[in-house]
Each structure stands twice: as structure tokens, then as C-alpha cells.
């Protein structure tokens, strides 16, 4: 796991945007895994900026989002489809027919929908770069603590902590869904590269559990220890509980030199 510590959230967004731009500019049919939540918003702002500056085009990109509330209409402002339109899709040249979320509409069977989503990802050639946030409870996507490390896209019941953490986004009298469809942990681990962003003190405990373990379903993000190409972008607060911070800073400096000498090797 490559841990990079930044001064602030803006630097994280700029670095993550560089990763996305490199993939999109390098590969003819890039496949992006996307995330919702507060953390990736500044990344999407950077991507829109780059698109408007003519630095990248999403016209050949296919995207798969991590999760979506069960049975929610895409016009509902709480839907993750709405979030993606507002924060990214409406502002760039992506073909919306090639943007997918793990939906399960009224009357559909979540098990069939989960299998169908896995098929779609496989047909697209797999995910090249998966963007991730992390929950204060260590979840990735909506893979809540004790999710199977072998899980695939499926229906999941949200924990009380996740509901509490997300309640800030719902009005007092608004319905807050308690069920969602989410890529599984094994689905996420199949991505060629995984880029996890975390900011703020309230993520510090989960970040520590993710980076220094133990590998456990109690912290789903710790599964990234098994991933060959997991990059973790942190601000100082999110990194604050890591014991070996000096090492990560030192290793990052070495990586810059190694990349200068041997070239950046991203095997997309
Ligand atoms: P946040 O959510 O970016 O809104 O903190 C992250 C997550 O729950 O994965």
C-alpha cells in the first residue's frame, strides 16, 4: 500500500485528478470506478477544470459507481445518479449511456441486478482505476464492517453509524434509505488500481486500521492490504493516528526519484 500524506484536501484532489488524467490520456477505452460522498467532490471539480482547459476528454470513458440506494428514482436528489450528474457528468463530455451505477429499481431483483452489474464490469474489460473514500467505520463502498472479503455486487443493510454519518445530507422529514446496492469487496479488489482518499480527523481511526491492520472484515478497507496497486491519499488529520508517518513521507520522496529515474509505470 502506498501512503501519501498531503497538507490539505485540495492537494489530494489535484493529485487524484492527475491519476485520472493519466489513465484517460493513456488508454483508448478507460474504465473508471467512481465514488460519491463529500471527499471526491473536490476531485470532480478538478476534473471538470481539466476538461474545460482542454487537458482531457471523457468521450471514450466508461464508468461504474460503487453504490446506489435501493429502489431510488434517479431523479430523486438523494440518488447517487443525481450526485454524479451534478458533480461530474453534466459538466464533461462523458457519454451518459456508458456511466453505470448498481441500481435496483422497484420490482427488480437485487440478486439479479448484482450479477448483471458484475457482468457489465467484465464486459467493459474490468475497472482500471477505482476511486474510493472510506467511512469512519472503515467501510468502502457500502461494504459495512463484517462484509465478506469475497463479496460481489449485492444488496446491503447500512449500519447505524453510516446512517448517522449521512443523516446530515437529509432533511429532518426526508426518508433516508437503509438499504443499498454496492460493489463487493472482491469487486473492488479486481480493479487494476485503487485510489483511496481520506481527509479529516474523524477518518484517522479507520485509516490506521486500514493501513496497519490487522486484515479483517471488521475494517473492510483493510482488504486493500491484499491489493497490488493501492494508493492512499491522506491529509495530515486523516494520517494523524499512523505511527510511521516519517517513513511514508520519506518513501514518497524516494518514489518521486525512482519514477524520475525509471519512468512512471502504470500498467493499465
Ligand atoms: P465521505 O464518505 O466522503 O462523505 O466522508 C466516505 C464514505 O462513506 O465512503
Automatic annotation (TrEMBL):
Cellular component terms per the entry's GO annotation: cytoplasm
Record-annotated site: Part of the allosteric site: 147, 154, 156-157
Keyword Nucleotide-binding: no
Regulation: Allosterically activated by N-acetylglucosamine 6-phosphate (GlcNAc6P).
Active-site annotation: 67, 137, 139, 144
Glucosamine/galactosamine-6-phosphate isomerase domain ranges (all copies): 9-228
Domain of life: Bacteria
Gene Ontology molecular function: glucosamine-6-phosphate deaminase activity; identical protein binding
Keywords: Allosteric enzyme, Carbohydrate metabolism, Hydrolase
Catalyses which reaction(s): alpha-D-glucosamine 6-phosphate + H2O = beta-D-fructose 6-phosphate + NH4(+)
Function comment: Catalyzes the reversible isomerization-deamination of glucosamine 6-phosphate (GlcN6P) to form fructose 6-phosphate (Fru6P) and ammonium ion.
Family, as annotated: Belongs to the glucosamine/galactosamine-6-phosphate isomerase family. NagB subfamily.
Cited HAMAP family: GlcN6P_deamin
PANTHER family documented for this protein: GLUCOSAMINE-6-PHOSPHATE ISOMERASE
Designated name of the protein: Glucosamine-6-phosphate deaminase
High-level lineage: Bacteria, Pseudomonadati, Pseudomonadota, Gammaproteobacteria, Alteromonadales
Amino acid at each position: 500500500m502506498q501512503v501519501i500524506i498531503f497538507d490539505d484536501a485540495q492537494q489530494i484532489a489535484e493529485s487524484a485528478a492527475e491519476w485520472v488524467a493519466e489513465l484517460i490520456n493513456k488508454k483508448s477505452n478507460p474504465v473508471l470506478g467512481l465514488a460519491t460522498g463529500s471527499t471526491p467532490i473536490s476531485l470532480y471539480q478538478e476534473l471538470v477544470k481539466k476538461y474545460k482547459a482542454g487537458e482531457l476528454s471523457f468521450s471514450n470513458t466508461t464508468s461504474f459507481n460503487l453504490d446506489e440506494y435501493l429502489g431510488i428514482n434517479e431523479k430523486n436528489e438523494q440518488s447517487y445518479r443525481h450526485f454524479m450528474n451534478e458533480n461530474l457528468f453534466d459538466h464533461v463530455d462523458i457519454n451518459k449511456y456508458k456511466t453505470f451505477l448498481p441500481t435496483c429499481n422497484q420490482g427488480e431483483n437485487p440478486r439479479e441486478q448484482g450479477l448483471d452489474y458484475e457482468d457489465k464490469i467484465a464486459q467493459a474489460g474490468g475497472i482500471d482505476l477505482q476511486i474510493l473514500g472510506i467511512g469512519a467505520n472503515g467501510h468502502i463502498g457500502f461494504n459495512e464492517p463484517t462484509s465478506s472479503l469475497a463479496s460481489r455486487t449485492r444488496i446491503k443493510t447500512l449500519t447505524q453509524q453510516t446512517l448517522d454519518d449521512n443523516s446530515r445530507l437529509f432533511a429532518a422529514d426526508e426518508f433516508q434509505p437503509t438499504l443499498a446496492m454496492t460493489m463487493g469487496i472482491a469487486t473492488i479488489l479486481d480493479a487494476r488500481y485503487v485510489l483511496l482518499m481520506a481527509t479529516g480527523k474523524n477518518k484517522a481511526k479507520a485509516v490506521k486500521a486500514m493501513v496497519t491492520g490487522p486484515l479483517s472484515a471488521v475494517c473492510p478497507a483493510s482488504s486493500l492490504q491484499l491489493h497490488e496497486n493501492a494508493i492512499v491519499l491522506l491529509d495530515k488529520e486523516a494520517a494523524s493516528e499512523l505511527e510511521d508517518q516519517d517513513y511514508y513521507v520519506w518513501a514518497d520522496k524516494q518514489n518521486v526519484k525512482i519514477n524520475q529515474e525509471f519512468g512512471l509505470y502504470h500498467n493499465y
